[in-house]
Amino acid sequence: MARLEYWNVSWWVAMAFTVGSIIWVVNGFYSFLPFVDTSFSMSTSGIGWTAWVGATVFEVGAVLGVLEAWNRGETANFGWGVRQVLGYENILETSGGIADSSLPSSEGKEGNMKGQQKWRWFSSDPKYWHELGFLAAFSQFWAATIFWISGFTALPSIQIAIETRTGVLDGVFWTPQVVGGMGFVISSSLLLLETQKRWYLPNPLSLGWQVAIWNFIGAIGFTLCGALGYAAQVSTKAAYQSSLSTFWGGWAFLIGSVLQWYESVFFDTQKMVFTPDATLIIRSKEYGDGSEYDIGSTSSMIPDHYVKRIWRKPGLLAGNGTRTVQYINKSLDSSDRSIAYSATETKELLVFRVGGYKNSGEPFAKVQWVPGSGKPTDKSIVTLGNKTGVLKDILKKSNTLSTSRMFVGPDGVEYKWKIIWVGNDPAFPEATFRTLYARHSKHPIATTARLTSRDGLPQDESYPIYIAEQGLNMQHYIVATLAVLESFSPSA
After folding, report:
1. Residue 225 to residues 26, 162, 220, Cα–Cα distance (Å)
2. Which of 36, 96, 314, 345 could be a cystine partner for 350, CB 3.0 to 4.6 Å?
3. Where along the chain do its domains lie?
């Protein structure tokens, strides 16, 4: 933990909250010791200044936390982003990207790769609103901002001026603590959900879960401090419990922050930020702990229950506005790159064929758009196998707010495409992917998660489709439903 990873924004976030928590622990001693030892007098200056500094440091950590969420998987590029903003001249272009000449030679290769990444100082991309990591960081930012108001009004000169004015004291000092504390509760709750395999199952063996649970306890303490503070002037018991809540809340935050610091230093994200070597498999949370893989064997480039791999190529746009996408077979040794399916889209029609579009392969699915009305799900007509109907009925939402879509396969079984929001997980090159499940099935039927490294050029590969043995008899449905869903926003 003695490593100073100044280039890693995750390290800065952890350090900010660790330092801030230490200050809040000191604040807790200032607040609580006079209640248990009369030799200690209440220090308005000590309480006020530590509260303001602690709240300010928390605010800095929260801002960095949002930056971390915007740059999922690229947290180690923070140092490069800062240097570029400051206009340093010693960032040299190389054939592999951009390298920082001031770095030790042992980091030269990583420096070359990092230069290819773009650091985001701000983003309005709506996709982040579907990521628990960003939602947690965003709610934490607003919680810290509101909480900072109570830190500011705790300054000795302000506190002395408002301590006899109950309404003002409640409004600008205690209330921001309650609202900000509840914001911290929401933020830590979202992080708990992100680290749990099932939303209702705790995951205490996860370091991230431990960070979140201790922050949750700290948030409860800070919230109780403000809530009990309303009665502190008229009840010594309330004043005692309010100060005690600050004391144990600060310690809980400190434990969580130290664990977060440990996680940021010892979880080496730099090896997973970029496309890995061809022999390295990216472990997916969907498929166990990785023990079922054998990295030394080419047969394990696909998890055991996936037996088919198809790559979706980027779309080709013709002069008449027709867009064509091809799906190619990819054997384990990449010797088979034949065209498995193709999809041709015009303004009014999307047609799926077996084989290449030039060969006029047999159509097996189509979507008829309503002319001039875009792609409404309640008017577009879909033909899938021997079924024809309105798109919203063929590909049904699980519920009104869900991004999942269900359909009935050729075997009469109900299947569901789920969007998996990876969030700030460096183990995945993409932020999201889709996974297909069957009712009462133990394993997924198909997924678009990148489970192996890219083995071709970016212009040749868009994303993979892995298909389990159970899905081999319905490849047509898998490809067609996936392509149709791509034509709509996740909330359509």
Report:
1. 15, 18, 9
2. 345
3. 9-74+119-273, 298-340+396-486
Residue type, 262: Y
d(CA 347, CA 492): 18
How large a percentage of the chain has pLDDT more than 70?
A: 69
Instruction: Summarize pLDDT for 370-389 with one digit per residue, the tens.
Output: 766 666 667 788 888 778 88
Return the C-alpha torsion angle 195, 117, 458, 109, nearest 10: -100
Q: How many C-beta atoms lie closer than 10 Å to residue 120's C-beta? A: 15
Is 348 or 479 the better-scoring residue by pLDDT?
Answer: 479
Q: Is 55:147 a contact under the CB 8 Å cutoff?
A: yes
Task: Enter the pTM of the model.
Answer: 0.52
Q: Tell me, what amino acid is at 105?
A: S
